Amino acid sequence: MMNKFNKLKNFIRGVYLYSGEKAFREILKFYISEKKECFNYFHIPKTGGKYIKKILKNNLDHNQFKAYEHIVKLKWINPNSKVIISIRDPIDRIISCYYSDIRNFEINNVQLGKFGTTLYKKFPTLEMAVKGFINNDKDIGLLTQLGLLSSISYWGEEKHFSKIKNLTVIRTEFLKEDVFAFLQKEFPNLKNWNNVINTFEGEKLRQTSKNDYDIDPILKNDLKLFLNKEYELYNYLLDRRN
């Protein structure tokens, strides 16, 4: 009985990552600090968010750029506000989410948390995790990036994004190019952005390799079908770049 209780408690903590107190502080900070000239960044995990936040925080002031915890939803923001979101091919992002903690442990000697330990014990291979994800296995929620935060719609759906008049979409696959294009467009007279981008040193931790993204073609197709709605939203956001 106690084991079942602890499992349930860990699952709830894994899915609901933020306490009510932290959520309240973050929402309060969001509304107090929101300014019309400020770009508000919504950080989807495994889309280059650490790079984006670090380079923009280092080179823009707090009235020009704000990044928020995951609790802040797009539907709460004034449609006239400036919004930045980074996106990545949904399958690649799911794979990166799975490998994130285990590769940090194996390559960078970053200790696994208890949720990660439980997850990798139950899903020791990517294929097993993908099947669990497709089958809505509740234990996937132990790694929140694969559970609660696995969809762009967690932050906003197309109807919410469509109301945002000033939306900057940054592609993980073209991270440096898109960040440079954003800075050059919005703050052309502030700095030599080409030099800033070329000399910037981000996180040096390594988490995945190209081989990590190899997956059985049939299983990959099943995953793509399962992520059909996610791809619709992803493609909509890609179209918003034009």
Structure description:
This protein is an alpha/beta fold and 242 residues long. The chain has a single domain (2-239), classed as 3-Layer(aba) Sandwich (Rossmann fold). Helices cover 50% and strands 8% of the residues. The chain has 11 helices and 4 strands. It has helices at residues 2-15, 20-33, 49-59, 90-108, 114-122, 126-134, 158-161, 175-186, 193-199, 217-226, 228-239, and strands at 39-42, 65-67, 82-87, 166-171. It has a 4-stranded parallel beta sheet with strand order 2-1-3-4. Helix 3 (49-59) links the parallel strand 1 and strand 2. Helix 6 (126-134) runs parallel beside helix 10.
What overall geometry do the principal axes of the alpha carbons give?
Answer: globular
- The CATH topology label is Rossmann fold
The SSE order reads HHEHEEHHHHEHHHH
Number of distinct helices: 11
User: What count of domains describes the coordinates?
Assistant: 1
Q: What is the C-level CATH assignment?
A: Alpha Beta
Largest sheet: 4 strands, parallel
Q: Strands of the biggest beta sheet: in what spatial order?
A: 2-1-3-4
What characteristics describe this protein?
single chain; 242 residues; Rossmann fold; globular
Brief rundown of the structure:
With 242 residues, the protein is an alpha/beta fold.
List the helices and strands and how they pair.
Blueprint (H helix, E strand, L loop, with lengths): L1 H14 L4 H14 L5 E4 L6 H11 L5 E3 L14 E6 L2 H19 L5 H9 L3 H9 L23 H4 L4 E6 L3 H12 L6 H7 L17 H10 L1 H12 L3
Parallel strand pairs: 1-2, 1-3, 3-4
